[in-house]
Amino acid sequence: MKIAVIGAGNMGSAVVAGIAGSLADVEIAVSNPSVAKLDRLKNRFPSITTTASNTQACVGASVVILAVKPWILPGVVDELRAVIERDMPAVVSMAGGIGLDDLERMLGEGCSPALFYVIPNTAAAVGESMTFMAQRRASGEQVSAVTRLFGACGKAVMVEERMMNAGMVTASCGIAFVMRYMRAMEQGAVELGLRPDEARQAIIQTVLGAAKLLEATGAHPEDAIDAVTTAGGLTIRGLNAMETGGMTAAVEAGMRAAMPAGRQS
Ligand SMILES: NC(=O)c1ccc[n+]([C@@H]2O[C@H](COP(=O)([O-])OP(=O)(O)OC[C@H]3O[C@@H](n4cnc5c(N)ncnc54)[C@H](OP(=O)(O)O)[C@@H]3O)[C@@H](O)[C@H]2O)c1
Q: With a threshold of 0.90, does the pTM exceed it?
């Protein structure tokens, strides 16, 4: 199976790294205007082919992944329309906020390949993305192929398109929300006397541990909190002070604020 990745920026490179690192049967062609980015990728993954020509990358591909900025996408779709019409690859757009109707309009009448709208997060760079995907007109085989590709970059789930914004806020914006929490923990730990480097390592391991505990046990976070909260103890004092500061309300408000306007459902 051959795939084309159009755009070798942060997300395009992360997806190439995930796929090239674990799916040996997938042939990858990557295109990007600046050669330096292509060379960097080629040095890391010698088996990929690189080119400055988007159409060249797409020839013979059964999946075309568009990893360009949303405002670049219409021009790229224009450029690729003929090859898409001819070869009918599954077309995967990662452009945030560009839904399947938008993509359909860009392709125009008479060009109706299987479409996927896919939103990974930046942890794709280390194979730990949480990726939400929606599709239109895809066969079972195409759904399996695209799920396998993005599964190589972390976890990937197919949802109805109306859930994509909630997924994007939770996982794609969410990674920044988790990091802001980690920054706050770091500031607190330094105030209490840990060196910044000690604090960061401790927080990374604590967050990893918390995530793995919830993953392994399937526990509700509040039940896992109960396990470390002694009546009259220190943890509950800390938790209550955080809630007095508005922690839960602030997180919920932040997530609502990040939801694209007019697309709450
Ligand atoms: N970052 C995230 O967390 C995230 C999460 C989910 C989805 N996304 C989406 O992923 C897409 C890419 O984001 P990014 O963060 O990877 O952006 P990025 O780092 O700026 O990468 C975009 C790449 O597209 C290349 N490019 C520009 N014009 C092109 C053209 N005509 N043909 C082919 N390639 C072209 C750029 O090349 P040059 O630099 O050489 O011009 C750049 O390498 C966006 O649509 C974004 O909404 C991002």
A: yes
